[in-house]
């Protein structure tokens, strides 16, 4: 069996097109322009690339983009003052603080200073609690993107066995909460899990968010399972730098029913969901109905 390749790049383009349509409707019908502010502290090269891509795609869907690039030596007080200004700025509906922050800044303190309604990354403690208790929240972008692709591919997820490998606050835990919300039977595996391969072989849905290149091989996969590979790992192979996931695509695709590739799977969905979250936040802030299918 060769698995169906779930094309995250095409899916993300569809989400962005949908967001762009809704943005145009907000402008024409209500004179509202959704705005996303991205805050970057320091010169981390990967973060600079992400922030650039986010700003470009924000503008492409017709939203306003506000970029705040601050020097690495910015103090906590200065950063908190900026966040306070953005919290109170009516043109800003979403705020994203690019992580990681330089070591002298307390990321938890900074994230929890955001207005939870503008926390489009879904990392504020109030949004984490809301997601955990099944209340309306801002949902972290990467797991939201995984959920959208799973719904699209499988329809109802109810009753399926889901295994999430990884228990980080930004991917593994919120992913597990979302799958529980879809009435899956959820197992969260991690570095102390015994016989990981056997645990994974019980999964109808297998989500890998580990950060270890190609660790999940075909013998971890139940025949016909849907495999979502969140991992992004840079490796050297044949003298070239290559991007690979946490799943060994070649062997897993022999067994799975469907699988996301790396690159071109979950990655493009993350920014698309950031835009979807900004649109959702804007609709909520203005008391307008939320577009269907763009949130959990
Ligand atoms: P973290 O390093 O925060 O978490 C990794 C998790 O994997 C931990 O819970 C860890 O367990 C678990 N783990 C590590 N080694 C093993 C092992 N040998 N067996 C089982 N579990 C293991 O990573 P993130 O969640 O932040 O990211 C995971 C991956 O997803 C990375 O490759 C990252 O680059 C990628 N990523 C991709 C995004 C995208 O847009 N597509 C966005 C965010 C992340 P323990 O808790 O016990 O240490």
Automatic annotation (TrEMBL):
Residues 6-121 form the Tetrahydrofolate dehydrogenase/cyclohydrolase catalytic domain. InterPro entries: Aminoacid_DH-like_N_sf, NAD(P)-bd_dom_sf, THF_DH/CycHdrlase, THF_DH/CycHdrlase_cat_dom, THF_DH/CycHdrlase_CS, THF_DH/CycHdrlase_NAD-bd_dom. NADP(+) binds at residues 166-168, 232. Its EC number is 1.5.1.5, 3.5.4.9. Pfam families: THF_DHG_CYH, THF_DHG_CYH_C. Catalyzes the oxidation of 5,10-methylenetetrahydrofolate to 5,10-methenyltetrahydrofolate and then the hydrolysis of 5,10-methenyltetrahydrofolate to 10-formyltetrahydrofolate. It catalyses: (6R)-5,10-methylene-5,6,7,8-tetrahydrofolate + NADP(+) = (6R)-5,10-methenyltetrahydrofolate + NADPH; (6R)-5,10-methenyltetrahydrofolate + H2O = (6R)-10-formyltetrahydrofolate + H(+). The keyword Electron transport does not apply. The gene is folD. SUPFAM superfamilies: Aminoacid dehydrogenase-like, N-terminal domain, NAD(P)-binding Rossmann-fold domains. It comes from Cereibacter johrii. Belongs to the tetrahydrofolate dehydrogenase/cyclohydrolase family. Keywords: Amino-acid biosynthesis, Histidine biosynthesis, Hydrolase, Methionine biosynthesis, Multifunctional enzyme, NADP, One-carbon metabolism, Oxidoreductase, Purine biosynthesis. Pathway: One-carbon metabolism; tetrahydrofolate interconversion. Homodimer. This is Bifunctional protein FolD. It comes from the Bacteria. The keyword NADP applies.
């Amino acid at each position: 069996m060769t698995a169906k390749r779930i094309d995250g790049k095409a899916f993300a383009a569809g989400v962005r097109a949908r967001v762009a349509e809704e943005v145009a409707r907000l402008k024409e019908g209500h004179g509202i322009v959704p705005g996303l502010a991205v805050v970057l502290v320091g010169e981390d090269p990967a973060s600079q690339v992400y922030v650039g891509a986010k700003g470009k795609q924000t503008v492409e869907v017709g939203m306003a983009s506000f970029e705040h690039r601050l020097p690495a030596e910015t103090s906590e007080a200065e950063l908190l003052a900026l966040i306070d200004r953005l919290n109170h700025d009516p043109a800003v509906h979403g705020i994203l603080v690019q992580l990681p922050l330089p070591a002298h800044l307390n990321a938890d303190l900074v994230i929890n200073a955001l207005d939870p309604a503008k926390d489009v990354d879904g990392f504020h403690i109030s949004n984490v609690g809301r997601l955990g208790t099944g209340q309306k929240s801002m949902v972290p972008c990467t797991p939201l993107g995984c959920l959208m692709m799973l719904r699209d591919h499988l329809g109802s997820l109810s009753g399926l066995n889901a295994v999430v490998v990884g228990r980080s606050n930004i991917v593994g835990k919120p992913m597990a909460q979302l799958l529980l919300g879809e009435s899956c039977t959820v197992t969260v595996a991690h570095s102390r899990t015994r016989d990981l391969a056997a645990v994974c072989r019980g999964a109808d849905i297998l989500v890998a968010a580990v950060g270890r290149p190609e660790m999940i091989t075909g013998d971890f996969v139940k025949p016909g399972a849907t495999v979502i590979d969140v991992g992004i790992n840079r490796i050297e192979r044949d003298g070239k730098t290559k991007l690979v996931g946490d799943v060994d695509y070649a062997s897993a695709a022999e067994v799975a029913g469907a699988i996301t590739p790396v690159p071109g799977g979950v990655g493009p969905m993350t920014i698309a969901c950031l835009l979807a979250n900004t649109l959702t936040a804007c609709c909520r802030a203005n008391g307008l109905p939320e577009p269907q299918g763009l949130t959990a």
